[in-house]
Amino acid sequence: MAFSSIDPAYLAQQYTQIERASKDNVLKAQQNRFSTLLSSYKKLETSLSSMQDLLKSFTKDKELLANTATTNQDSVLGVKVGGNAVAGDYEIFVQQIAQHHQMSLAFNSTDTLPADGQFQLTVAGESFSVDLSTLSPGAGLTGLATAINKAADNSGVQATVVRSGTQSYLVLTSKESGAANAISMNFVPGADTSGADIGAAVAGATQLKAAQDAIVKLGAENAITVTSASNQLENVIAGVTIDLKKAQLGTDQPVQIKVEQDPKAVEEKLKKFVDGYNALIKQISSDSSLNSDTMARSISNQMRQSFQKLYEGTPLSSIGIAFDRNGVLSVDSKKLSSALSENPTKIEDMLVGNSGLFSGLQASLEPFTKRSGMMKSKQQTIQASLDMVTEKQKRHDYSMDMVYKRYVAQFTQMQVTMAQLESSMSQF
């Protein structure tokens, strides 16, 4: 084949590829390594953030223990229970429930509001007034109700208008229940003689619902009387919230409330943490990029070391939290239940107290998970290395482009020379 038939660009490409292959492979390997590590660290950051949020949810209220509360008369009252409630049986008789005070003022269709005067309202010793001269002309009862509701110094009254036939009613309701929140009113007339209508309505106001406190009797014998302005009783039984629904008749039996410890709920909380911890450790150990990285291994080691410490002078294994032979964290239901029945407060201190397991884990993760922490710095370092490799690749590509052009020029010149020689030889 004559040399003149060879494509210089093809030859230049082949020779350039041979020359650049070695460094291309090195740069590609570096780029893959840093890209993979950066991706792994971004995923790890998300997992650590989720773990930190979980730990904070446990330590925020320092409450791990769980109880259940049941009642034999749900129609009379409802109960909610917190972790600090004490197990026991309680009897409550609901003598009366708390009510919002409600009054109505009646007006005939022929009654009109005056153009002036002060409509005064008092709730729980605090007064405010509506100046009728500030209402729009012809505003009527609806305008008065709106003015009451929007008054900047409204001390706790909600107003609305109800109509029936030829009569209209201004209905006033206290925003808060309880005997102390009774509404009283007065009208101070101005120059407009129409003030007599509203004055008569105030004088003849009707009580629709009395302001009253809730009254309950706690105990079967020599009962304790408890009064409350609200139907939600939060401090009667420690750790138990009681929502009163209706009053009982004198012949009714007291409501039975039973508070019990719920070790299953505690176990479910702990298993949620254990599952999160195991998933995080597996993420590090199963990812070759992370498993071979010093900082990632350090995170794993620091967390594991937290489980080797004593809390309240007691190892975690004694309450059922331990690693199996494969290094997987688990919860022993029987040990945990036994420890909870023996000393529940100690278990809570061991796990969610200020010096407990979760607080320690939270503190150990803080340097990594905070906004400008070590995870961010690590990713910035990896990104900088990746950028450096990318820049090296660009410079290498430019250098190889120059080599390619040099080869093209050389092979083109060689082709011209060989063509000339072939032309000369053909003359002999």
From TrEMBL:
Residue ranges constituting the Flagellar hook-associated protein 2 N-terminal domain according to the UniProt record: 4-101
A Pfam family per the record: FliD_N
Keyword terms, alphabetized: Bacterial flagellum, Cell projection, Cilium, Coiled coil, Flagellum, Secreted
Record carries keyword Transport: no
Domain of life: Bacteria
Every Flagellar hook-associated protein 2 C-terminal domain range: 211-422
Keyword Glycosyltransferase among UniProt keywords: no
Cell location: Secreted; Bacterial flagellum
Main location class: secreted
Protein family per UniProt: Belongs to the FliD family.
PANTHER family reported in the protein's UniProt record: FLAGELLAR CAP/ASSEMBLY PROTEIN FLID, FLAGELLAR HOOK-ASSOCIATED PROTEIN 2
The protein's assembly and partners: Homopentamer.
Name recorded for this polypeptide: Flagellar hook-associated protein 2
Protein source organism: Rheinheimera soli
Taxon lineage: Bacteria, Pseudomonadati, Pseudomonadota, Gammaproteobacteria, Chromatiales
